[in-house]
Amino acid sequence: MKTPPSLPGGLPLALALALLCAPAARADDDEHGGRASRVPMLAAYRQECASCHIAYPPGLLPAASWQRLMKGLERHFGTDASLDAESAALITRWLSANAGTGRRSAGTPPPEDRITRSSWFVHEHDEVAPSVWKRASVRSPANCAACHVGAEQGRFDEHALRIPK
């Protein structure tokens, strides 16, 4: 019997190809947002949305929330974040295609479509004292980058926290 081809280190070539072709895990499969950094960031999303806040990983909300948020950009949390129709459609499609479906969002939109009001967010941050959110260096629960060192890259690992004074 002929030995199947393998890569240096002994990994069978067929297995390596299968792993390369496998679909990415959903963002909400990793309790620390691990897929977020593996989803290629849409340039238009980064350019438009990250000009005011971090480009939140799309897996943090279900598709219905992203669609409502994108339809209401003229009143986006107290700001007019309107976009041209083409950019809005492109970003909406990308957010919807990469939206959360599992443990993080369970397909259930959080109150007001706010990531910070979702049940998983509240659970994960229940030990944070209300006074921490009010610090000038933090300002609000939506300012992920204040504490999560890798937030800009979509990483929210609790082992890489820096709680500002």
UniProtKB/TrEMBL annotation:
Keyword Cell wall biogenesis/degradation: no
Domain of life: Bacteria
InterPro entries listed in its UniProt record: Dihaem_cytochrome-c, Multihaem_cyt_sf
SUPFAM superfamilies (UniProt xref): Multiheme cytochromes
Keywords tagged on the record: Signal
Signal peptide per UniProt: 1-27
Protein name: Mono/diheme cytochrome c family protein
Native species: Sphaerotilus uruguayifluvii
